[in-house]
Fold each of these.
Amino acid sequence: MAIAFPQPEDSTHVVVTGFRTLAGSGDFSRHVHVDRAQLMYAARGLMHVATPAGRWILPPGRALWIAAQTEHSLEVNRPAELEILHFGVRTPRLPDWDGCAVVNVTPLVRYLIEACMGMDDAYALDTAEARRIGVLFDEVSTMSRAPVNLPSPRDTRAVRVAQIVMDDIASRSPLNQLARDAGASERTIERLFSAETGMSFGAWRARARMVVALERLAAGESVQATSFAVGYENPSSFIANFRTTFGATPGTYFNQ
């Protein structure tokens, strides 16, 4: 489904819409914003985003950029408070990003998002509002991306392996066994994951475990229970790998 927003007739104006929503369990079917980019900030809760290229999760305190023309669907499994800004594709200094990206939000960007929420839908380019948007774009463009996406392979054999892993994320089944179950050789699966996800199978599996761990921690599960649920033999190893991946321990990640 394609969603288009009316653009102002005066080309010296662009449109920004912002709203705050408190959502319970629900999902939004796959759609496309043909003329808008989106910036979503998760003030509370956790959201899932899916595109043909893969899956993202949006943890609290982070922001998700969705470029115009990006087909995506959204899913919220528990109450989540989101601040969402839409930017017309003609907005000056719009980040030149394709697809989706989750970024770690600094206090300055958090303040700018909050300030933009109260803006009028249309504004002239030579105004304080336009300069505020420009600073927001400059800051977002330089922020570090959070490794919370899980790229999707396309070949049916690699897709089968990925599904087996996700169905039993704690399993330590070796790749040769997984490949055999998918009707392929270990070498073929390694090649497919590298070519189609940009990651080795081992790196993809490690990322999958971290993504699932974030979801469980956001739901309130303990660090110990989460570590065992995603296949770690002890919480210490899990905490060390979590810190390496996300730059913070599980106990501090959601408070940043």
Amino acid sequence: MPTRGAHQGSPPGAARIARTRMASLRHLRLSTTGAALALFLAAAPVSAEAPSGEQIFDHCTQCHGSAGEGNQLVAAPPIAGMAEWYVAKQLRKFRDGIRGKDARDHEGLRMRPMVRFLTDDTWIDNVSSYTASLPKPAPVATLSGGDAAKGAGHYATCAACHGLAGEGNQATNGPALAGQSDWYLYQSIEKFKTGVRGSDPKDTDGAVMRGMVMILTDDQAMKDVVAHITSFPTN
């Protein structure tokens, strides 16, 4: 039986070579995006008016989608409709090396070069305002095996910062969770649990989150709380 993804009669290793080429092409596309963003920002005169959020966001669409709907294939979460304050804070964390520097954080390491050119906070504010104005996409379920009823018990701890219905609370640095993709919620919890996120001394709210997720002692508990969060109504 031929290896899946390889044509019948292909020489040994053809599938592996094909996968390597696809990975290289993906890396090239992402690198090209970063280079294009760098050229765009470098070409803008210092005294010129800051580009609009839409102009800056155009360089984010390859991963996050033209409407900010996200793309699980490249581990890019939906950012449409996400609170402006939260997006701006995360962009600054990536830019300043507070987030995305752990060697295990493959997605974060890819994100950092995309934002390091946003040295002007006005530009970050502009693109954050633009993504906040985009309508939230309807989440699509990708995880299975979670028990929302059991997850409700775990979520009681989360509600203090994220709100009873996952609506978020800027005063407690808790972003909205309602409407976020289940795969990204699960991935984020896992990163906080393992110290991939929230370990930098400057990431004070990340450190708080790290402590909170430790109540989720196993994979099932993580799936349960995600199932509960995804049961919240979205606006």
Amino acid sequence: MTEYNNIYFDLDNTLWDFEANARDAFREIFDLHHLWNTITDFEKFIETFSVYNEQLWEKYGLGQIKKEALRIERFSLMLHRLKISDNNLSRLISDAYLEIMPQKSNTIRYAFEVLEYLKPKYRLFILTNGFHKTQSAKLKNSGIQHYFSGIITSEDAHWSKPDRRIFEYALKSVNAKKSESLMVGDDLTVDILGAKNFGMDQVFFNRKMISHHMKITYEINQLNELIMIL
């Protein structure tokens, strides 16, 4: 078995439960700004947000839109889809989301146990497509920041996963060797294919048990299965 020294974790939906935290954040926003009468179908709201958020993050990663456009358009497009045309409401929800979302603290099951086990044995890093301030706040507020020696974001690197250049940046910035490093993530394309194409070993955290035919270094369905690998 390969001797690893450096473990790179994706953050959202690998350690920090993005889906649960988004749902909690939006409930708080709806309560705070009395939106339940304006937007009556909360589940449709969540579903539509998820679609546009993913699409716009992909465009941002390709350099097709700017940071501010991503933050606003995911809500304006979503509201338009829900037949609500209100630019002020888009801005209000966006501002509230950026403030409240990083404060949420739900983590993926077994995150603390796994990090507690790994911390004495390896250098641990976060490698995430996201904005440094936001992702750092998520780490701090969820109580897992102290496990990590550093956080590398796409904002820092100026490249997004799966681009090989962000993986190269992640290694160089902490003086790590590719042969001694492992990428752990839940996104088959962004995390796993990106690392694979770069030549870094990978652990696909396939928590939704999706079917695929990609040759992967390791695959797990529960986070605590990492302990059996490492």
